[in-house]
Amino acid sequence: MVRKTKEEAEKTRKDIIDSARQVFHQCGVGRSTLEKIAKQAGVTRGAIYWHFQDKAELFFAMREDVFAPMVARTDALLFSDDFADPLDAIEASLKEFFRVLEDCPVVREVFEIMISRCEYVDEFASVQEEVGRPAYVFLEKIESRYQRAAERGTLRVGLDPLQMAHDTWAFTSGLLHLMLGCQKGSDLEQRIPAMISQHMALRRATAD
């Protein structure tokens, strides 16, 4: 009975997170209420408060629900021992990130919510730094790979690992915004792998 109750509670929590994502995406975070989310999930507002302190905590739970498995996939490539050249690992990781965005509508929805459907005012004014934290973590990871490439001599001479990390960070962010904003029928998504390959090619050491 205890196990069944625990499983039911976990299912309710997952249903609330899924419903929050749908309501956030449809209405925007600022215009989403716990009442709307509760109705979408088929639960009471009290049930939401049982699992989450407020809308901000629910927002972060929604993000983590999607980000954790996605980061696990991209990090597995970024830090894989299968790549002798860290630049190859960066390239594979970036391509995997955009492949997940293209193949998984739920992941894409969450990024659309964070980028274009969340107003950082009122109760969300104080959480903007936390919202942006994954981007800075990404920057640190990429810098460590560029640093390793420099040590192994695969990064083009004269390029600074930190500056290259910022450059790739800006490139990835810009590509993400373009991808989420592109109209149907655009061939941008098909071009992304080649764009990433070209971005990395410009950083590779050339044979003398």
Describe it.
With 208 residues, the protein is an all-alpha fold. The chain folds into 2 domains: 1-52, Homeodomain-like (Arc Repressor Mutant, subunit A, Orthogonal Bundle), CATH 1.10.10; 63-201, Tetracycline Repressor, domain 2, CATH 1.10.357.10. Helix content is 74%, strand content 0%. The chain is built from 10 helices and no strands. It has helices spanning 2-27, 34-41, 45-51, 55-78, 86-103, 105-116, 128-131, 133-152, 161-181, 188-201. Helix 5 (86-103) runs antiparallel to helix 10. The protein is elongated, with a radius of gyration of 20 Å. The N and C termini lie far apart (71 Å). The model has no long low-confidence stretch (mean pLDDT 90).
Question: Briefly, what is this?
Answer:
Helix content is 74%, strand content 0%. It has 208 residues and is an all-alpha fold. α1 crosses α2, α5 crosses α6 and α5 packs antiparallel against α10.
Strand content: under 5%
Gyration radius from CA atoms, angstroms = 20 Å
Low-confidence stretches: none
Helix residue percentage: over 70%
Largest sheet: none
Number of helices: 10
Mean pLDDT: 90
Number of domain modules: 2
CATH topology name of the largest domain, in short, is: Tetracycline Repressor, domain 2
Quantity of strands, as a count: 0
The general outline is elongated
Key words describing this protein structure:
single chain; 208 residues; mainly alpha; Arc Repressor Mutant, subunit A; Tetracycline Repressor, domain 2; elongated
